[in-house]
Amino acid sequence: MKLEPVITEKSLELAKKGKYTFKVGIGMRKGQIRQLISEVFNVHVKTVRTMNFKGEEKRTLTGRKRRIMPVKKTIVTLAEKEKIDIFENKK
Question: In the CATH scheme, what is the homologous superfamily, with its name and number, of domain 3-58+65-81?
Fold first, then answer.
């Protein structure tokens, strides 16, 4: 099962509020995502919100076709005072 953290400015700001963003496999359901994150990071998941992004074909500058694969993005809210160390800002 695929679980990839999304590290952007917006996701780092959400991480300060206890909401963490991941890209997951398209076929995963909310219960499976909750269980996977709980096992991998040893945290308690409160809520799971998912978004599907469909795939598409785009043309490159040289005119070739490029396929953008579909992905599912999820925002996970953790219980109070729990955090995932991947999203911590280093100074």
Answer: RRM (RNA recognition motif) domain (3.30.70.330)
